[in-house]
């Protein structure tokens, strides 16, 4: 109902005293509507960057704006993230899904989702690049399967809160990796965009159809360098603003109507969309 896993809820209850669910005679937890409202309030605070350790005080005092300002300058430190990342990497190399999930849930119970994604999930993904030995490839496949499940579930629960411009997210690359799309989609949702994820190897004609049918206000393509040429992109950009991010080097000098995003990190793509819509609103 809230998208928060049971392990995290128990941590919020036992460690931080944030919720106090009732118990059945057999010891099962019962969450009332008031508990669910409280959980949703906590999720809002986490989305704003307020650490879980400050959430109870903020809820009691009702001063979320001040706490958010403080949280922006509060960093748990590289040692904390490094320790969590090491644990998760070890979980990947020994194919231990339970260890991976427990570490992830621990991080989510302590930090905002956007922090967990930026400091933990994205770096973990980058530590297992394509190629390498058979062991490396197997570990990468295992990690991708786990990430796909976790990120898809998080996107499903978080997309209901977004109310901004609708963005279609896809890649035209054949055989592309969909994990960057999921990471990028969550970042867009964190910035208020309503995101429709079309996936990999989507041709420009299909994107044009989807844009018309969904009323999308822009299309964001993530590319590894194989876009299938620029003619289709330029045609698509005649219908809706198109942004292309990732490895855009092969497209340099050929973007007649679409926008190339500088930088190969997902954050650059999100900033480009933020700038586009901020300028449009102020025009």
TrEMBL record:
<dbReference type="GO" id="GO:0046872">
    <property type="term" value="F:metal ion binding"/>
</dbReference>
<keyword id="KW-0238">DNA-binding</keyword>
<dbReference type="InterPro" id="IPR000551">
    <property type="entry name" value="MerR-type_HTH_dom"/>
</dbReference>
<feature type="domain" description="HTH merR-type">
    <location>
        <begin position="1"/>
        <end position="61"/>
    </location>
</feature>
<dbReference type="GO" id="GO:0003677">
    <property type="term" value="F:DNA binding"/>
</dbReference>
<dbReference type="GO" id="GO:0003700">
    <property type="term" value="F:DNA-binding transcription factor activity"/>
</dbReference>
<keyword id="KW-0805">Transcription regulation</keyword>
<protein>
    <submittedName>
        <fullName>Transcriptional regulator, MerR family</fullName>
    </submittedName>
</protein>
<dbReference type="GO" id="GO:0031419">
    <property type="term" value="F:cobalamin binding"/>
</dbReference>
<dbReference type="InterPro" id="IPR047057">
    <property type="entry name" value="MerR_fam"/>
</dbReference>
<keyword id="KW-0804">Transcription</keyword>
<dbReference type="Pfam" id="PF13411">
    <property type="entry name" value="MerR_1"/>
</dbReference>
<dbReference type="InterPro" id="IPR036724">
    <property type="entry name" value="Cobalamin-bd_sf"/>
</dbReference>
<dbReference type="InterPro" id="IPR009061">
    <property type="entry name" value="DNA-bd_dom_put_sf"/>
</dbReference>
